[in-house]
Amino acid sequence: MALGSLLNVFKSKDAKIEAELLAQGFEKSECDFDCGTCSTKFPNSVKIQDDSEGSLWETSKPYGLQVIIPTGKTDWPHDAYSEEGKLPNIVSNWAEKSAEKFPGLGSATNIKVSVSSLCTPELNSGNEEHANQTRGDLLLLPFFVWVRNVTVEDVAQVLDEVIPILLDLRDKKSDTIIEKIDNFPEVTFEISKFQSYIFLCSHRTRDKLCGITAPIMKKEMEIHLRDLDLHRDEGDDREGGVQVSYVNHIGGHKYGANVIIYLRKSGKNIWLGRCRPNNVQPIIDECILGDGKVWPEKLRLTQRHNPIEW
């Protein structure tokens, strides 16, 4: 194919992506994705794909719900869901069978389950059930709602019952959520106070690249968020902040460093790939503070869910 024809193909694809973004309510950032003042770099051994090595767009499948399971860890077994009788295993099995139960999640009824470095007070206190993952907390995104103190025996029933309720409350633009459900009096529900979550794949057991890049990206993000008084670490639940955490394998390690963003106010969900430390400040300025402004060439996926009022 002649060079001119090849360039026309790329331009045509870029125009299609931009049209899809506009239809979803996303705005293309006019700012450079690289921050020239950032001196932090990955080690020379880390090789990040160049943008010329294929489009990132739609390299992740749409989904309607992500269940985040706090573990307080930064790495996990190769199959993070393999240990039978533990929350990750039970929730993962539930998700595979349950997506079609909830048409209110939208056309993308796939449910994603991730274990995370998020740490709850019970994990910090050494609670045996929580440490052994036979009881724990779940973060439901894009609802920004915590399910607290659920057991492996009850988790499937609790999720089956609470998700339709959350969908109904969201669609009715309710400013409150339920605190308890009758059948499970020990389980409570709590609204996350943060304006955004950022997740970085750190699953070193699956891919060494993630284990190297994620801590560097996290440190750089937290520096910039602290300057803005937006950084929230474990135990800091002041309203309006941003929490940066690790998750296990999300697919597409070759596109690392992967950055997944949830924005509470607008319901936007953004997946970025091929990110480097000098991209951190533009990500915060444009994606977080700019309410979801994006760079088409860096996008793996964008989704916009109905905003929540609570």
SSE map:
Blueprint: H1 3-24, E1 65-70, H2 87-98, E2 111-116, H3 121-125, H4 128-131, E3 135-141, E4 145-151, H5 155-171, E5 188-191, E6 196-201, H6 208-227, E7 242-247, E8 259-263, E9 268-272, H7 280-288, E10 299-304
Parallel strand pairs: 1-2, 6-7
Antiparallel strand pairs: 1-3, 3-4, 4-5, 6-8, 8-9, 9-10
Task: Name some characteristics of this structure.
globular; 10 strands; five-stranded mixed sheet; 310 residues; Glutaredoxin
CATH architecture of the largest domain: 3-Layer(aba) Sandwich
Order of helices and strands: HEHEHHEEHEEHEEEHE
CATH topology of the largest domain: Glutaredoxin
Number of domains: 2
Radius of gyration, in Å, reads 19 Å
CATH superfamily of the largest domain: Glutaredoxin
Give the amount of beta strand, in percent: 15-25%
Put simply, the count of helices is 7
CATH C-level class of the largest domain is Alpha Beta
How do the strands line up in the largest sheet?
A: 2-1-3-4-5
User: Helix coverage percent of residues?
Assistant: 25-40%
As residue ranges, the low-confidence spans are 5-10
Major sheet size, sense and barrel closure: 5 strands, mixed
CA(first)-CA(last) distance: 54 Å
Morphology: globular
InterPro entries: Aim32/Apd1-like (IPR009737), Thioredoxin-like_sf (IPR036249)
Protein name: Actin patches distal protein 1
